[in-house]
Design brief:
The complex is a heterodimer of chains A (114) and B (111). Chain A contains no helices and eleven strands. Chain A is mainly β. In chain B, the strands form two sheets. In chain B, strands 2, 4, 5, 9, 10 and 11 form a six-stranded mixed sheet that branches. In chain B, strands 1-3-8-7-6 form a five-stranded antiparallel sheet, with no helix packed on it. The chains are: A mainly beta (114), B mainly beta (111).
């Protein structure tokens, strides 16, 4: 079974702090994704990566950046956390070249910015 | 504009009821449509649909894709309190890497 691990389940940070959310997968998947999930808005794509050092903006990249230095690890960075970034953050992976695959999700990180 | 629209957004039923959740979409060319169940944490995979008219079943859950109507339904028969969750529909389009999610249907099954 693919395992996707997010480093923290719950996180509380102060406004203006730099925040790192880590996601690690153990199955050699090419693609990794970061979503945020908010009530009434569903899952919205922040960034994704289809290879090491490659990244693409999703629908809501403002205020975020990402890093993928190794295939198994995809980090989401909040450069200067703000209260409107309080949300559930979900990491997901899939294997693109094998064809038609959905995601495997991490357990999520619930971030509160105070 | 939403490309994947789920309805209803929320639903409350009694144990034993049958429910039908809807997912409609706009694109005509896509790889697959997926359904996920999300309880307290990460979404878990339910079904992947690629062909129209072929029902997929897993226990009391079933799903079918109608490419003519640009829609899919998820049926749950004899609901149980453990079915209470958010059900997510997502489209895997031809043009991109990422899944495009609907806003989800929040289902509450009361005893």
């Amino acid at each position: 079974d693919v395992k996707v691990t997010q480093s923290s389940r719950y996180l509380v940070k102060r406004t203006g702090e730099k925040v790192f959310l880590e996601c690690v997968q153990d199955m050699d998947h090419e693609n990794m994704f970061w979503y945020r999930q908010d009530p009434g808005l569903g899952l919205r794509l922040i960034y994704f990566s289809y290879d090491v050092k490659m990244k693409e903006k999703g629908d809501i990249p403002e205020g975020y950046s990402v890093s993928r230095e190794k295939k198994e690890r995809f980090s989401l960075i909040l450069e200067s956390a703000s209260t409107n970034q309080t949300s559930m953050y979900l990491c997901a992976t899939n294997r693109y070249r094998a064809g038609n695959y959905g995601y495997t999700f991490g357990s999520g990180t619930r971030l509160t910015v105070v | 504009e939403d490309k994947v629209v789920q309805s209803p957004l929320s639903l409350v039923v009694h144990e034993g009821d049958t429910v039908t959740l809807n997912c409609s979409y706009e694109v005509t060319n896509f790889r697959s449509l997926l359904w996920y169940k999300q309880e307290k944490k990460a979404p878990t995979f339910l079904f992947m649909l690629t062909s129209s008219g072929i029902e997929k079943k897993s226990g009391r859950l079933s799903s079918i894709l109608d490419k003519k109507e640009l829609s899919s339904i998820l049926n749950i028969t004899a609901t149980q309190t453990g079915d209470s969750a958010i059900y997510l529909c997502a489209l895997n389009s031809n043009s991109g890497y990422a899944l495009n999610f609907g806003k989800g249907t929040s289902l509450l099954v009361t005893p």
